[in-house]
Design brief:
It contains ten helices and eight strands. With 283 residues, it is α/β, with parallel strands linked by helices. The chain folds into two domains: 201 residues, 3-Layer(aba) Sandwich (Rossmann fold); 66 residues, no CATH class. The protein has an eight-stranded mixed beta sheet, sandwiched between helices. α5 runs parallel beside α6. It is globular. The structure holds nicotinamide-adenine-dinucleotide (NAD).
Length: 283
């Protein structure tokens, strides 16, 4: 698949062109032929004019790109390597809302062909790709994962507003349904990730790693915020406390504040859901 993509005998499609999908699609479009698929025509029209509706990328990022922006499922059938980057929010009870990733899986099921690849980038709980998404693709396509098509999961680490940590310069975790898939998917991502890829041992490990990264950050910042409320009441400067505590070799240097990125506060609910923890909404 890698060879066909590089020789432009095959195309890569990105489904969902938001904060995550658009930078991924444009990075690949500098190297290979890309189909950028989204259901939102208004956003697609802006992208066709070289405007990022999420205000992260500049018009130069759209230049010299081999990309077709489309909402047509016919166009999607022309691809051989599918990347899914649709939103995975929570509902009003903080339960994972998989409706969009399920819709995207149904669409992939309609267009995927023998020998194709599908890689999920949407943040999900460990097990979701194999338990929820791939069975939908298999059922609709009549093809079998690992036998007729290959699959993988590669979580995204880009951070809205962050111009330092970009797709190209942060190590990307990749995983595959088998060794062959892992090798091919790694080679494909290495086209755009200069920092290189980290090959996770399984799809579940890659899914869990992403959730843990964001949950660790969310919990620690929440703890610092709680501390700052307590220390404020005690007339103690929290930053002075953290500076003093930070002189210990194993003290983790977090600070009070807001968590960056709209998914950091959402992702822990995905982990809690899979862990069977009952979430009680306080507000
Ligand atoms: N934003 C971040 O910083 C960030 C970082 C890492 C991971 N993630 C994860 O990446 C995933 C995508 O998040 P995002 O921030 O890019 O979302 P987003 O809201 O910025 O954009 C999602 C895009 O997907 C499109 N879309 C929705 N349903 C679709 C469908 N069925 N088919 C095709 N397109 C569809 C929307 O029109 C929109 O353009 C989520 O799982 C999120 O948790 C986000």
């Amino acid at each position: 698949m890698y060879k066909e993509l590089v020789e432009k005998k095959a195309k890569l499609a990105v489904i969902g062109l938001g904060y995550v999908g658009l930078p991924v699609a444009l990075a690949f479009a500098k190297k290979i032929s890309v189909i950028g698929f989204d259901i939102n025509e208004e956003r697609l029209n802006l992208m066709r004019k070289g405007i990022d509706p999420s205000n992260e990328l500049s018009s130069e990022d759209f230049e010299n790109s081999d990309i077709t922006f489309t909402s047509s499922i016919e166009d999607l059938t022309l691809a051989d390597f599918y990347i899914v980057a649709v939103p995975t929010p929570v509902d009003e009870k903080n339960t994972p809302d998989l409706s969009l990733v399920i819709k995207a899986s149904q669409m992939v099921g309609k267009v995927i062909k023998q020998g194709n690849y599908v890689v999920f980038e949407s943040t999900v709980y460990p097990g979701c790709t194999e338990e929820e998404c791939l069975p939908i693709i298999e059922k609709i396509s009549g093809l079998k994962n690992k036998v007729d098509f290959k699959s993988g999961y590669s979580p995204e680490r880009i951070n809205p507003g962050d111009k330092i940590h970009t797709l190209s310069n942060i190590t990307k975790i990749v995983s595959g349904c088998d060794d062959e898939a892992l090798e091919e998917i790694s080679k494909v991502y290495e086209l755009v990730v200069q920092a290189g890829v980290y090959k996770a041992s399984s799809i579940k490990v890659a899914e869990a790693a992403k959730i843990v990264e964001n949950t660790q950050r969310d919990l620690n910042i929440a703890f610092m915020n709680e501390l700052s409320i307590v220390f404020d009441k005690l007339n103690i400067n929290t930053f002075e406390v953290l500076e003093a505590a930070g002189t210990k070799w194993n003290f983790l240097k977090f600070q009070p504040g807001l968590v960056g990125g709209h998914c950091t506060g959402v992702d822990p609910y995905y982990l809690a859901y899979k862990a069977g923890v009952r979430v009680i909404k306080l507000n």
